C-alpha cells in the first residue's frame, strides 16, 4: 500500500488557495466593471456561472494531489 506524499498535498493546498483567491478577485473585478447596469437575471447568470467555474481548476489540482495509486498485484 502506498501513501500519498505530504509534500504534494501541501503544494496542492497552497495552489487551491491561490487559485480560488485570484479567481474570486478576477470574477469580482469583472462583475464590478460590467454588471453595473445589467438586469437582475444577468447578475444571477454571471454569479451562477462564476460560482461553479472555479471547481474545474480545483478538481485538476485535487486529482494531481491524489497522484497515481499502485493497484495491488493479483497472485
Description:
The mean pLDDT is 86. The chain has 75 residues and is an all-alpha fold. It is built from three helices and no strands. Helix 1 runs antiparallel to helix 3 (55-66).
Outline:
This protein is mainly alpha-helical and 75 residues long. Helices cover 73% and strands 0% of the residues. It has three helices and no strands.
Q: Give a short account of the largest sheet.
A: none
The number of strands is: 0
Question: Which word captures the global form?
Answer: elongated
The chain-level structural class is mainly alpha
Multimer state? single chain
Q: Can you give the mean pLDDT?
A: 86
Could you list the spans in which at least 5 consecutive residues all have pLDDT below 50?
none
Determine the strand fraction and express it as a percent band.
under 5%
Taking all Cα atoms into account, the compactness measure Rg is 18 Å
What letter string, H or E per element, gives the SSE order?
HHH
Instruction: Give the number of helices.
Output: 3
How far apart are the first and last residues' alpha carbons, in Å? 15 Å
Helix % is over 70%
Task: Name the descriptors.
single chain; 75 residues; mainly alpha; 3 helices; 73% helix; elongated
